[in-house]
Amino acid sequence: MIEQVALFENEPEDLDCKTTLENIIVTVSAKWKCSNGLFSIQENKSKDKLTGYSIYFEKCLFFKVNTKFTVISCNKRVYDTLEISPAGTKLLKSPQNFIQCTFHTQNEAVKAAELITDENVRIFEPTDHFGCCGLYLKCSDAKKCLHPDIIRSKSCYYKKNLESGKIFYGKNANI
Question: pTM value?
Fold first, then answer.
């Protein structure tokens, strides 16, 4: 009897690209305590043929991946901060400042996609801001933002005041 052997150890035989991306989103969302709803996955097509997916976070493009999950395009600034070893890279003209990474295996590409997603969430700066939430007294007393959603807390102007030592309310008020 002939047994089927995978070419790479722990390599899935038929990786479902969209499901893999959804799993990455769930994992990163849980780590950063942010809503899965902040992410969106859009299909990339050429002549009505599915060629890959684009991952957005708060309407900001994080990266693109082909359907075989072997090529990822991401922001070069993010790529430069990570320890990723693709088989090859190429600077793209569009989207501007994006780099295309080709990987030997799907496992390598999936790990890279996880790192890219995580780093993008870590450095994300929202464009919409608000003054403060209902936790401002507790935040003032703690001298830091206590909002449980890390991404939402990045939108808080009062958090920036707290980080610069300006406390307007509570027992630590200094302004």
Answer: 0.76
